[in-house]
Amino acid sequence: MYVYADNAATTQVSQRALEAMLPCFREFYGNASSLHTPGQKAAELLQQAREDVAAAIHADHKEIYFTSGGSEADNQAILTGAQIGARKGKKHIISTAFEHHAVLHTLDRLKKQGYDITLLDVHENGVVTAEDVAAAIREDTALVTVMFVNNEIGTVQPIREIGAVCREKGVLFHTDAVQAVGHIPVDVQDMNIDMLSLSGHKFHAPKGVGAMYVRKGIPVSILIEGGQQERGKRGGTENIPGIVGMAAALNEALETQEADMTHLSAMRDRLIEGLSKIPHSRLNGDREKRVPGTVNFCFEGIEGESLLLLLDDKGIAASSGSACTSGSLDPSHVLLALGLPHEVAHGSLRLSLSADVTAEQIDHIIASVTEVVEYLRNMSPVWDELERGVLPHQI
Ligand SMILES: *Cc1c(COP(=O)(O)O)cnc(C)c1O
């Protein structure tokens, strides 16, 4: 049996997205900036996609800027907030310690340019609160950027409440909603969101396409200079196939969202119940405040990498956390932000499901993880010391 359980890293392009894209390669291949008929056809497809993406998050089509993905949207939105602040003499930015590196590294760069960055601690359940944000806001705060759903542990942040605090204090609010859009309801009006990042390949569209939403009236900073595409705010000939595929995938995700959320939540709960029976295991992040499809576990005495390789042999594609940091031996910054000890954070496993997952696949994951954890523990000197009481159990 084969199970792809790494959908938080990337997803398979859906049939519907693929079919929407195919004509854009050889039939509708015009440049959307050209005045001739093929160009105007491309411009029409672009406009329809813009309206679809806007509608999906309750925005206006004039508030959508297509980008090369979530990372670019994060970079540009944060730069926008930073530059607006700087013009008013405000150079303080608030974020959290468990953001995606597209946010954290952009903030590192701004810090070198003289911005003051506050990274909020995350509570042990993987959530930051609106009160945490309110307490950190100062006279010179320009921007708050808090992710909607954490990509490693799947916890959902109280975005509406955080947005309300920012609105009340007159501070711009950006959210990296890459793991939220397409998966759970997102409404930029109702949730008081000024700027938002989304990425196609996390909801069954292709890689290399995303979007930034910026509320009307907020002056957007330019990250990529070029032509007049995206109202002059993002140069470069538009990726029409990718953008059309993204809109199709998003339309599809919204149509099936309610049913998908119900099914995925049931599958996730079955998975959590099964994995919790493994001795000295721990679910990372709040049991309730999480997206339907993602779970993250720690197993004491286990190296994340060995676990992944043995699961791969059993036909299960999983992750030890972020795709961007697995490959390095450092424990996840997300798990460390929750306050987990280094040796525990090393043994983490992220399983992120797609809506077509079956109960049989979940049971295969549970049986395989249980078997592999036991096998690895049996040959681990660390586990031996834990069992003999030489080292204290942490979980
Ligand atoms: C995947 C991801 C990104 C980056 O998106 P890309 O389209 O791969 O650049 C940013 N933030 C979060 C939370 C993600 O999961």
Secondary structure elements and their pairing?
Blueprint: E1 3-4, H1 15-26, H2 37-56, E2 64-67, H3 70-87, E3 92-96, H4 101-112, E4 116-120, H5 130-136, E5 141-145, H6 159-169, E6 172-176, E7 195-199, E8 210-214, H7 240-276, E9 281-283, E10 294-299, H8 304-313, E11 316-317, H9 333-337, H10 342-345, E12 348-352, H11 359-378, H12 381-387
Parallel strand pairs: 1-11, 3-4, 3-5, 5-6, 6-7
Antiparallel strand pairs: 2-8, 7-8, 9-10, 10-12
The protein binds pyridoxal-5'-phosphate.
Describe the model.
The protein has 395 residues and is of the alpha/beta class. Helix content is 41%, strand content 13%. It is built from 12 helices and 12 strands. The chain has helices spanning 15-26, 37-56, 70-87, 101-112, 130-136, 159-169, 240-276, 304-313, 333-337, 342-345, 359-378, 381-387, and strands spanning 3-4, 64-67, 92-96, 116-120, 141-145, 172-176, 195-199, 210-214, 281-283, 294-299, 316-317, 348-352. The chain has a 7-stranded mixed beta sheet, with helices on both faces. The protein has a 3-stranded antiparallel beta sheet with strand order 9-10-12. Helix 3 (70-87) runs parallel beside helix 4 (101-112). The radius of gyration is 22 Å and the shape is globular. Bound molecules: pyridoxal-5'-phosphate. The site of pyridoxal-5'-phosphate has 15 residues, from helix 3. Residues 69-71, 74, 100, 102, 147, 151, 176, 178-179, 199, 201-202, 210 line the site of pyridoxal-5'-phosphate.
